[in-house]
Amino acid sequence: MADVVGEDGKIVVPDNVQEAIRTLLRWSGDEPDREGLIDTPKRVARAWREYCSGYASEPGVHLSRTFEEVGGYDEVVLLRDIPFQSHCEHHMAPITGTASIAYLPKDRVVGISKLARVLHGYAQRLQVQERLTAEVAKCIWDNLQPHGVAVVIEAQHGCMTGRGVKTHGVGMVTSRMLGCFLNDASSRKEVLSLMGRG
Fold first, then answer.
1. I need a surface site. Which of 64, 169, 175, 179 has the fewest CB within 10 A?
2. Is 89 a catalytic residue?
3. 57-195 has which CATH code?
């Protein structure tokens, strides 16, 4: 469903969405009609539209423009420590972290910003870190058909730091290796070393 944009250039938030947020505010113990919260339902709805903007895109599109002439380059291409933000699908709490994404090209390479765009396309959905890691790797594997893909993500989860066990400073690490990075120990060791994890 396409968003309707008002004369002010902002997304028009449907009444039922605003009322749902007002209900949540009431349930939380606050009064949605007080001065500081009057426009909060619209702001929250617009923020969530942005947080979940990945549903409106196909991340693989970013990998459609490739370059074959790379001067015979046949080594690892790595983008390290890409910051990202997502939200967990269980509590809708923030997930913040960094990703390192590498591939060993076969015939084609992409502009380096495209790897970050793929990450953000999947991160801007309700997620679990394991699936996010796998989706990024599979997208690169399917679209570039390289010799190998390696994705390592480290993130902190608001559902663990801000509620429940309330344990701060804990990072969760997930990885997905495909092709030569999965099947060849020396290639895997090399890429993890380049990522600063070897």
1. 169
2. yes
3. 3.30.1130.10
